[in-house]
Design brief:
By secondary structure, this protein is an all-alpha fold. The protein contains 13 helices and two strands; from the N terminus they run H-H-H-H-H-H-H-H-H-E-E-H-H-H-H. It has helices at 7-22, 28-41, 44-53, 55-63, 72-89, 98-117, 127-144, 151-162, 166-177, 206-227, 232-241, 250-257, 261-282, and strands at 186-187, 193-194. The longest helix is centred in the last third of the chain and has 22 residues, at 206-227. The model has no long low-confidence stretch (mean pLDDT 83).
Length: 290
């Protein structure tokens, strides 16, 4: 689907495009001079001349992305942001024309805008997902003409060409072929129900939440009672080795306690046996400990 501007917006866009096409092209030496004046002297007039001369490049790039259904004027403005970013980062000393350097920034700015606005659901953030979004349709169309391969073979070829997983291709294919729908979309003959009423809730039920909370408190109480039967050194070992997200190694704990790492291993094993015996004695059903 292609976005259609209202007549006033269309006239504004047309005037802007015509103005950009009337801007003179720059000679290489003059282009580099403008870039140096902007970078070294902060010459705003030089920046304006440099940027205005390449507005046509922005327009040309933006029109290639019209098929994504977003306003052309917005695509052009995003491309202008990329053009300004290119002007801010361009290094005249490098043996490259400004247009070559700016083309990447313009295209990147427009593509980022499309990814942010094509759907209310974020399409992708990684380089591979971005490449898949913009290249999959073209590759699928080209491969579809190459001997009429089946859908599965097309997905395999796209995944190989873009160096992504087949499941990523399948996921992107589903996103590109399905439009966004509101959760409040009415369904049924009388329209009394909403689409969100059909979505399953995979979270725990109130009964499960209450039971888990009670069981968790019981387990904490059992563990506290069992830890009280250990010596201070055994409690330190269990705390540092079993009850922390960043457990110490046997060697680190041995240095802290002034014993060998083998002795720490022996003490840890003895403490675990004590805890196991106490906990089993406290609980009638062993499965309640899990």
């Amino acid at each position: 689907m292609t976005y259609v501007d209202n007549p006033d917006t269309q006239r504004s866009n047309t005037d802007y495009i015509r103005a950009s096409m009337r801007q003179p092209l720059l000679e290489r030496d003059h282009e580099l001079d403008l870039a140096r004046r902007w970078r070294d002297q902060n010459d705003v007039a030089a920046l304006h001349e440099l940027v205005k001369s390449y507005m046509r490049l922005v327009v040309s790039t933006a029109t290639r992305f019209k098929a994504y259904g977003l306003p052309v004027g917005d695509l052009i403005q995003e491309g202008n942001i990329g053009l300004m970013q290119a002007a801010a980062r361009f290094e005249p000393e490098r043996d490259v024309r400004f247009s070559t350097y700016a083309a990447w920034w313009i295209r990147s700015a427009i593509q980022d805008y499309i990814l942010r606005n094509w759907s209310i659901v974020r399409i992708g953030s990684t380089a591979s997902q971005k490449s898949l979004f913009f290249k999959m349709r073209h590759l699928a169309a080209r491969l579809g003409r190459d001997g009429d391969p089946g859908p599965a073979e097309v997905r395999d070829r796209i995944a190989e060409a873009l160096n992504v997983k087949v499941k990523d291709v399948e996921g992107m294919e589903a996103r590109l072929t399905q439009a966004d729908q509101s959760l409040n979309l009415t369904i049924g003959e009388d329209g009394s129900d909403e689409f969100q009423s059909l979505l399953p809730d995979d979270g725990p039920t109130p009964d499960e939440i209450a039971r888990n909370s009670i069981d968790g408190e019981a387990r904490k109480r059992w563990l506290h009672e069992a830890m009280a039967t250990l010596s201070p050194r055994e409690q330190t070992i269990i705390n540092q080795r079993r009850l922390t997200d960043e457990a110490l190694t046997l060697e680190e704990l041995g240095q802290q306690l002034g014993v060998s790492k083998e002795r720490v291993r022996q003490l840890e094993q003895r403490a675990m046996n004590k805890l196991r015996a106490v906990l089993v004695d406290r609980v009638e059903i062993a499965g309640d400990l899990l």
